């Protein structure tokens, strides 16, 4: 059911939906405003206790710029079900289902933290027609970890030093022809700065690849964005650019 943000002259509207994806039912929404066209942006949240709500203020700022967006809670998060073990491969299938159902090309995909990997994989499928790939403190992972269910086995695969240097996405990104924006935080203690540099070094055919550093900010960019209007507007501009 559409929900209108009270008191906003631009009438930000959130249209909630349920999306079947494999054995799961995913909670999601499209956030738009008067004058927006179809949703062309898909947001993918991170791991831990994250849900799509962490990107709500940023998505509202984008709606006020005329950019409608879709977002889901991955299975096991927020309002989505958790009937089967989760993995990066499962998240990929869920993200693809949302992209197909609720966005139109040309598309932008925004991957936060763990979902940097998922956003990159989506962008590297030419049939998805993703014109702009955005990662916010985005991670990449050893290809061997992609199908392993989250848990001890997955964690063990990531403990190998610099395991992310063996990410399948580094080879995949070499054929991507759209634009890439890699947003990293100067005080990030989770994702090494070399991750964005390695992605950029492999983006041989991209129309544009830029690394944007956020000074004085740690890995919790989404939480900071909710409280910092200037940061929120910066990110909205970078995504909508």
Features:
241 residues, disordered N terminus, Rossmann fold, nine-stranded mixed sheet
Which segments are poorly predicted (pLDDT under 50) over 5 or more consecutive residues?
A: 1-7
- Helix-strand category: alpha/beta
Instruction: From the 3D structure, determine the CATH topology.
Output: Rossmann fold
Strand content: 15-25%
The count of β-strands is: 9
Please identify, by name, the CATH architecture.
3-Layer(aba) Sandwich
Number of helices: 8
The shape is globular
Q: Return the string of H and E elements.
A: EEEEHEHEHEHHEHEHH
Mean pLDDT: 95
Helicity, as a percent range:
25-40%
CATH class: Alpha Beta
Rg calc: 17 Å
Spatial sequence of strands, sheet with the most strands? 1-2-3-5-4-6-7-8-9
Our measurement of the CA-to-CA distance between the termini, rounded to an integer number of angstroms, reads 30 Å
Q: Name the CATH homologous superfamily.
A: Alpha/Beta hydrolase fold, catalytic domain
Polypeptide structure, described:
The protein has 241 residues and is α/β, with parallel strands linked by helices. It has one domain: Rossmann fold, CATH 3.40.50. Helices cover 31% and strands 23% of the residues. It has eight helices and nine strands. Strands 1-2-3-5-4-6-7-8-9 form a nine-stranded mixed beta sheet. Helix 1 packs across helix 8, helix 2 crosses helix 3 and helix 7 packs across helix 8. The longest helix has 15 residues. The chain is globular, with a radius of gyration of 17 Å. The relative contact order is 0.14.
């Amino acid at each position: 059911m559409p929900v209108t943000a009270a008191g906003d002259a631009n009438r930000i509207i959130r249209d909630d939906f349920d999306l079947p994806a494999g054995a799961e039912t995913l909670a999601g929404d499209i956030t738009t405003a008067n004058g927006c066209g179809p949703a062309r942006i898909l947001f993918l949240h991170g791991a831990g206790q994250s849900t799509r709500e962490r990107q709500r203020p940023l998505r509202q700022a984008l709606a006020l710029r005329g950019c409608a967006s879709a977002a889901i809670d991955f299975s096991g998060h927020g309002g989505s079900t958790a009937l089967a073990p989760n993995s990066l491969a499962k998240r990929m299938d869920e993200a693809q289902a949302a992209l197909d159902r609720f966005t139109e090309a040309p598309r932008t995909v925004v991957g936060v933290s763990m979902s940097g990997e998922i956003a990159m994989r989506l962008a590297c499928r030419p049939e998805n027609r993703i014109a702009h790939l955005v990662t916010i403190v985005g991670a990449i992972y050893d290809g061997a970890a992609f199908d392993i269910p989250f848990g001890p086995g997955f964690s063990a695969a990531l403990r190998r030093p610099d395991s992310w240097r063996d990410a399948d996405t580094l080879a995949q990104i070499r054929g991507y022809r759209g634009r890439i924006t890699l947003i990293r935080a100067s005080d990030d203690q989770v994702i090494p700065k070399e991750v964005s540099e390695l992605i950029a070094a492999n983006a041989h055919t991209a129309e544009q690849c830029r690394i944007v550093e956020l000074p004085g900010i740690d890995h919790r960019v989404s939480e900071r964005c909710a409280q910092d209007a200037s940061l929120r507007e910066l990110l909205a501009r970078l995504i909508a650019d």
